[in-house]
Specification:
Layout (H helix, E strand, L loop, with lengths): L4 E2 L20 E2 L7 E3 L5 E5 L1 H16 L6 H10 L4 H10 L2 H8 L20 E2 L3 E3 L6 E3 L3 E3 L5 E3 H14 L19 H7 L3 H18 L3 E3 L8 E4 L6 E3 L5 E3 L12 H12 L2 H10 E3 L6 E3 L6 E3 L8 E3 L21 H53 L9 H26 L4 H25 L7 H32 L7
Antiparallel strand pairs: 1-2, 3-4, 4-11, 5-6, 6-7, 8-9, 10-11, 12-13, 14-15, 16-17
Helix pairs in contact: 1-2, 9-10, 10-11, 11-12, 11-13, 12-13
Length: 504
């Protein structure tokens, strides 16, 4: 984006001082061939570099400008307003109220001359002898030192520069920088920003903000979530499918999380929130503790006796664990609360039992989810050790091609770990039925085979056991791969035939 830059052709900035003829440089020459890719499930997508993203944005603007002759910056703001849906913009442009359209997008209607009296705040004061007063710094300056937008609000060049720099560098605003006048929400166009800001770092940050806004607002684009990767994925339609960036990171285009088959995006979002939420700690406290009725200190019941004595040295309250009332009226009834209504007591005990049961169920699935996640991280490190084993096997008269089965085995192992990890999220929300039993059997079978394969790959390889290990590893990873596919096919068949009901 920094090299071989060109500018929009014939762009009217919509600015009073547009005679400077400075536009936002966003067109770049893309030297590489953009290659369409498809993943294994025939979901077409493209991986775009930063330069290709900018070019795609410019092409989208030109597509609209080939039909509607309006300034390129105005077109970009309108497209951004409609989340870069060109069809929706064109439909609204021709079938709706154009004045309202431009007003909602916060730009001046380029087909009409602005009536200054319609703006929300007054235009700049003009002083005698060709001078004007800047309403930010209140200095009286020659008119040549003042500039502004078509809304009629003019300020000195220095104040404009400071205002734009603050918005860009400190507030991180690019797409929605409004006029500096109080109460005016007209957006500052690209040409004005690039004309008024001379600092190259600020200009570059502005370009990055505009590009980022383009990707985030465009439903057919998504940044690769891998750290330090600046690529974006472009698709033809939005569905929860697996996509793989050129950096080899694989993720779900719909939600941006790591590829999570067989669980659906909305359930995964709920699960991640549940795991991150401190509410599970609160659930444990609710299931195992109560508060002292006098000082509100949290107390855990660690015995069978209902007579509780607060350990707070400043409290020492005696109370009943069941009803939380003072212990003295209970007399010698040390193990039962005779004052407590039996139905209410049973309801309270049932509620506490349900809380404990819900917590134990969550921990069952969470522990297995986390264990497979941890194993997956170790398995990714296994590639280094497998590489050494492959080199060692080549020393035992095996060719490079013959030892590739080890790398293939680790690939399959990682895929199985990732699938198993997300099966526990799916299972947590799944209601019991006949099909869920089949799913759990498939899950158990895959898990057992995956653990066996992991053990094989961690064994030491010697010349004596080389042939035996190779055969076992090949047989097991093929079995794991087939069982993984069977599990996923069964879950997806359930989606199609509506077998699954959820505890949400």
């Amino acid at each position: 984006m920094d090299s071989e830059e060109e500018t929009y052709d014939d762009v009217d900035s919509g600015n009073e001082s547009s005679g400077d003829d400075v536009d936002f440089p966003m067109e770049v020459e893309v030297t590489g061939h953009r290659e369409k890719q498809t993943d294994s499930d025939d979901y077409p997508f493209e991986v775009l570099s930063t330069e290709e993203i900018v070019q795609h944005m410019v092409d989208s603007i030109k597509d609209v400008n080939s039909v509607v002759e309006i300034p390129a910056t105005t077109t970009r703001i309108l497209l951004n307003h409609f989340r870069w849906d060109k069809e929706k913009l064109m439909e609204r442009f021709y079938d709706g109220d154009q004045d309202q359209l431009f007003s909602e997008a916060r730009v001046i209607n380029p087909f009409k001359k602005l009536n200054i009296t319609t703006t929300k705040s007054k235009p700049t004061k003009k002083i005698a002898n060709g001078t004007e007063e800047c309403e930010i710094c209140f200095m009286v300056l020659p008119a040549s030192h003042m500039t502004g937008l078509e809304c009629g609000h003019r300020f000195c060049v220095h104040c404009w520069c400071e205002y734009l720099t603050t918005k860009i560098m400190e507030e991180g605003v690019g797409q929605t920088i409004a006029c500096a006048a109080h109460g005016c929400d007209i957006l500052v166009d690209d040409a004005s920003v690039m004309r008024l800001v001379r600092d190259s770092k600020v200009r570059l940050k502005y370009q990055h903000l505009i590009t980022n806004s383009f990707v985030e607002c465009n439903r057919l684009l998504r940044w690769c979530p891998s750290p330090d990767c600046s690529n974006a994925i472009k698709v033809q339609y939005v569905e929860p499918h697996r996509v793989t960036c050129k950096c080899n990171h694989t993720f779900c285009f719909s939600c941006g999380e790591n590829w999570h088959d067989p669980v659906k995006c909305h359930l995964l979002r709920k699960w991640i929130k549940k795991c991150d939420d401190d509410s599970e700690t609160s659930n444990w406290i609710a299931a195992n503790t109560k508060e002292c009725p006098r000082c509100n200190v949290t107390i855990e019941k660690d015995g069978g006796c209902n007579h509780m004595v607060c350990k707070n040295q400043n409290c020492k309250a005696d109370f009943c664990w069941v009803c939380l009332g003072p212990w003295e009226p209970h007399g010698s009834s040390w193990y039962n609360c005779n004052r407590y209504d039996e139905d209410e007591a049973k309801a309270a005990r049932d509620a506490q039992e349900r809380s404990r049961s819900a917590l134990q169920r969550y921990l069952f699935y969470c522990n297995r989810y986390m264990n497979h996640m941890a194993s997956l991280k170790f398995e990714n490190k296994l590639y280094a050790s497998v590489k050494e084993k492959m080199e060692e096997m080549q020393q035992h008269n095996m060719s490079w091609i013959e030892v590739q089965f080890l790398k293939r085995a680790v690939d399959i192992l990682c895929q199985c770990r990732q699938t198993l990890m997300y099966t526990y999220v799916f299972a947590y929300y799944l209601q019991k039925n006949n099909q869920s039993v089949i799913f759990e059997d498939n899950q158990k079978d895959l898990e057992s085979a995956t653990e066996t394969l992991s053990e094989y790959l961690e064994r030491d390889i010697t010349s004596e056991n080389l042939a035996d290990i190779k055969q076992k590893v090949q047989d097991k990873y093929r079995y794991c791969d087939s069982r993984r596919k069977v599990l996923l096919e069964h879950v997806h068949e359930g989606y199609e035939k509506e077998w699954w009901d959820y505890n949400e």
